[in-house]
Structure formats: C-alpha cells, structure tokens
Specification:
It is a single chain. The strands form 2 sheets. The protein has a 4-stranded antiparallel beta sheet with strand order 1-2-4-3, with helices on both faces. Helices cover 32% and strands 17% of the residues. The protein has 6 helices and 6 strands. Bound molecules: flavin mononucleotide. Flavin mononucleotide binds next to loops.
C-alpha cells in the first residue's frame, strides 16, 4: 500500500467486531513497533498485549467508556524511565517521544492489515499500574485497543489545521508555501 494511502486509512476506530486477531497478526504489529527509532536507540518501551478478559475489564475500568469494551484485544504501551535518554542540557526525558513513534508504527501497521486502533491516553494510570503490577520505573503511556473494525477501514479526509497555520519559512512570520 502506498504510504499516503496508509496515512489516510489510519484513523481512530471506536467500534470493533468481536473477533480476536491471531498471534501472527499481532506479532506483525509488534514487530513494527520494535523497529521504531528511539533516542540513542535505547528502545525504552514495553508492549503488553492484553487479551485476558479479566485484565481487559481492569483496563477498561481505567478508561470507563462504553465504546472501548468492544475491543477484543489491546496493547498497553509502557515507557521505562530508567532506560530512556535524558538530554544533558536540561534533563528532558525522551521516553514519551520514543513511545509515541513506536505507537505510530503500531497503528500504521495495524491499518495496513485492516485492523483498527485508537490511541487512548485519558485513562487513570493508577488503575493500570495496580492491575499490571507495574514497577515504578515503568509508566503506562497509552492503551491501544485494537481489533477488526465494525465498519471496514476506508480512507478518511482528516480534520486538520491548514498547513499554512502550522508550517513556516525561516521563522514564525511567513508560512511555508
Ligand atoms: C496522544 C494521543 C492521545 C489520545 N487519547 C485519546 C483518548 O484518550 N480517547 C480517545 O477516544 N481518543 C484519543 N486519541 C485519539 C484522537 O482523538 C485522534 O487521534 C484525533 O482526534 C484525530 O483523529 P484520527 O485518529 O481519526 O485521525 C488520542 C490521540 C493521541 C495522539
């Protein structure tokens, strides 16, 4: 699939069929995350595949929305703050950036396989920490519910800011056009 088509195809999916993906499909998605770039190549991420009903229920408790309960599986992406690169100049932790790139790989690969995903960050991290016994160095960064979409994935027109409002030329005065 051509890359611009794939970008158009990837969208937040919030209604899933009750069909679990097989391990081979999930492995392809995880492999895309594994190959993501990261600061100093530290790869400070952990991808926890969740398909156990009890754990899924706990995950959904951390984000109590009806729609998410239709997801048959999820990937909980965690960042390891003890592994992530911190910039010397100001100690900025780049773990979230690394995890975001990996998640982008994951969601794009899923879309290329006809699988729906949605970033979820508005969850209660304490509930997730307790449910998965996460050590202090691991931060739950995003829940990615995933599965076959209720409606097949079709390219969408993205509601996005105009390029002129976000891209500039040699400073912030002139738009790049
Ligand atoms: C960092 C991040 C956090 C997000 N958190 C949530 C969330 O908690 N719940 C939700 O329904 N969507 C969440 N989204 C999905 C966004 O609302 C969605 O990506 C955006 O509206 C653009 O739509 P699209 O994904 O269909 O292109 C999140 C997206 C990102 C990138």
């Amino acid at each position: 699939m051509e890359f611009t088509q794939l970008i158009a195809l990837r969208q937040s999916v919030r209604a899933f069929k009750d069909i679990k993906m097989d391990s081979a499909t999930i492995l392809k998605i995880l492999e895309a995350g594994r190959l993501a770039p990261s600061a100093v190549n530290f790869q400070p991420w952990r991808f926890i595949v969740v398909d156990d009903d009890h754990l899924l229920e706990n995950l959904w408790l951390s984000y109590p929305r009806q729609w998410i309960k239709s997801a048959p599986q999820a990937i909980l992406v965690c960042g390891d703050h003890s592994e992530s690169w911190k910039r010397a100049a100001d100690n900025k932790d780049h773990g979230d950036i690394d995890a975001a790139i990996a998640i982008d790989h994951i969601t794009l690969m899923a879309a290329s396989l006809g699988i729906g995903t949605c970033w979820v960050c508005n969850f209660n991290p304490q509930i997730v920490r307790e449910s998965f016994n996460l050590p202090d160095n691991l931060e739950p960064i995003a829940i990615i519910p995933m599965g076959y979409p209720q409606d097949s994935l079709l390219p969408t027109d993205k509601k996005r800011k105009d390029l002129r409002d976000i891209a500039f030329h040699n400073g912030l005065i002139n738009s790049f056009e």
